[in-house]
């Protein structure tokens, strides 16, 4: 007799409810293919109910004192800390990343929750007295209303925590659509948010695929939409939601390069390249997927291969160096791109396609894979592989390396490894990429700053978390006031623009 598989619930108006849909998808452990749960593709009526609950809750939530909102997130961050091990275990089971990396996923989201608890210092306006004769002007940052978020499979804890805490702390209400591939840890975080005291309707959750995404883009009561995911979907979301009159921020695909100069600390540079290229099985939008080896650094390839070959592959619960890809389809796509790289003339230095994980023969495993001699125009260079594949490109100079990176359409992140301050400064000034690391391979900023991907990796002006997201989730209202002394009033009509 088989054990019943649990169903993932919707959250509507403070209640975890069973969906009425007839369309369900399996949540599958990528290391074993075990079905962990079933997730519903929410009906249009359920999406509308979630938005309606958020719209109604906004009437009172926007008037909640800013200190009360902050204290709620102080409690929430403690609940996340108290449940860190459980959250990481859920994340590893459904997404595949190692337990250590899963804790990092949760922790980087926790940092944003802590930032949300500081909302009193962030949501401040400006004030100036006597800007004209007896006239004062000040600004207030007011919440927008109902906001929505669409999150990807690769960071099912961190990226939802990028979104709804900051939106809600600013006084908005929120409708979240997690990835249908691994929604379980997201839902556990949502349960903790309700336990922390988020009122009914302030946070709602719907699950689904393209139909639900389109419904969120189109819904007239949603004022702003945040998205993290692939470039094709992000471009669609941005265009559709923008045409519906919404504010939109879309963080999308990447092809992140790291320059390695021959004066770099070799051991540190190679270790960081391997970690940033193969960590999370390469399923990071900020992964280093291209290493640009300058001059004599091209001779370091054999040592890079040795380090990559030594990485352990296995189920995330065993805490290896890298776990499986999210799905059999993802594994097949990565394997196909590796074959294409060979076909197009790149040199396969290390092949991870035949990796064996005893006891997990059905897992979606690909081992670390290295190509040298990679050039623009090859599929492995032009496409975001989103797997444990590191492409090596050789150039003769820093200028040539900078030109190569600036010619790439993506602009999520980049890095340089060097001991030269002059080279680092030149790189930082001339590179046309939003997030720059100097001897830091994955330069994702802490929440005091904002995520600043650029060019083809981002649509919308304002990034997630930090100061920029306060502007995204609020409307700046400017108030100009003047109070007259009745005795001093001239009683004359003035039809000209004031000169002072």
TrEMBL record:
PROSITE patterns: ALDEHYDE_DEHYDR_CYS
UniProt cross-references to Gene3D superfamilies, sorted A to Z: Aldehyde Dehydrogenase, Chain A, domain 1, Aldehyde Dehydrogenase, Chain A, domain 2
Organism of derivation: Pseudogulbenkiania ferrooxidans 2002
Name under which the protein is recorded: methylmalonate-semialdehyde dehydrogenase (CoA acylating)
First-tier enzyme category under EC: oxidoreductase
Segments forming domain Aldehyde dehydrogenase: 16-479
Single Gene Ontology MF annotation: methylmalonate-semialdehyde dehydrogenase (acylating, NAD) activity
SUPFAM superfamilies with a match to the protein in the record: ALDH-like (SSF53720)
InterPro entries named in the record: Ald_DH/histidinol_DH, Ald_DH_C, Ald_DH_CS_CYS, Ald_DH_N, Aldehyde_DH_dom, MeMal-semiAld_DH
Keyword Repeat: no
């Amino acid at each position: 007799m088989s054990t019943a598989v649990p169903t993932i619930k919707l959250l509507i108006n403070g209640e975890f409810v069973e969906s009425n849909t007839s369309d369900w998808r399996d949540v599958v452990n990528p290391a074993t293919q075990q079905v962990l749960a079933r997730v519903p593709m929410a009906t249009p009526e359920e999406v509308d109910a979630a938005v309606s609950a958020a719209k109604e809750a906004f009437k009172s939530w926007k008037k909640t004192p800013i200190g009360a909102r902050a204290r709620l997130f102080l409690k929430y961050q403690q609940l996340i800390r108290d449940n860190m091990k459980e959250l990481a275990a859920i994340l590893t089971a459904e997404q595949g990343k190692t337990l250590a990396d899963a804790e990092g996923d949760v922790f980087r989201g926790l940092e944003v929750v802590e930032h949300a608890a500081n909302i009193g210092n962030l949501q401040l306006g400006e004030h100036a007295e006597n800007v004209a004769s007896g006239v004062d002007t000040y600004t207030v940052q007011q919440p927008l209303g109902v906001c929505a978020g669409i999150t990807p499979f690769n960071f099912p804890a961190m990226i939802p925590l990028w979104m709804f805490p900051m939106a809600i702390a600013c006084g908005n209400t929120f409708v979240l659509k997690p990835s249908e591939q691994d929604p379980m840890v997201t839902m556990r975080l949502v349960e903790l948010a309700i336990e922390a005291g988020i009122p009914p309707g302030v946070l709602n959750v719907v699950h689904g695929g393209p139909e639900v995404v389109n419904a969120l883009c189109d819904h007239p009561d949603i004022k702003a939409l945040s998205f993290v995911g692939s470039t094709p979907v992000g471009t669609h979301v941005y265009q559709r939601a923008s045409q519906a009159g919404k504010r939109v921020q879309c963080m999308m695909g990447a092809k992140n390069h790291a320059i390695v100069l021959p004066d770099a600390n070799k051991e540190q540079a190679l270790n960081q390249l391997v970690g940033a290229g193969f960590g999370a099985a390469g399923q990071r939008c900020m992964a280093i997927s291209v290493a640009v080896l300058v001059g004599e650094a091209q001779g370091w390839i054999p040592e890079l291969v040795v380090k990559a070959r030594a990485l352990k592959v296995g189920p995330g619960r065993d805490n290896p160096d890298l776990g499986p890809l999210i799905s059999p389809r993802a594994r097949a796509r990565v394997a196909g791109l590796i074959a294409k790289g060979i076909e197009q003339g790149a040199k396969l230095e290390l092949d991870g396609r035949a990796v064996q994980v005893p006891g997990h023969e059905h897992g979606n495993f690909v081992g670390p894979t290295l190509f040298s001699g990679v050039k623009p125009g090859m599929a492995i260079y032009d496409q975001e592989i989103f797997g444990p594949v590191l492409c090596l490109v050789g150039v003769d100079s820093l200028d040539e390396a900078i030109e190569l990176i600036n010619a790439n359409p993506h602009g999520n992140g980049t890095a340089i490894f060097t001991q030269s301050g002059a080279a680092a400064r030149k790189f930082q000034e001339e590179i046309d990429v939003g997030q720059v690391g100097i001897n830091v391979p994955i330069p994702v900023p802490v929440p005091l700053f904002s995520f600043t991907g650029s060019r083809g990796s981002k649509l919308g002006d304002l990034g997630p978390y930090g100061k920029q997201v306060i502007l995204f989730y609020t409307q700046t209202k400017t108030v100009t006031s003047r109070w007259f002394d009745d005795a001093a009033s001239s009683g004359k009509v003035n039809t000209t623009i004031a000169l002072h």
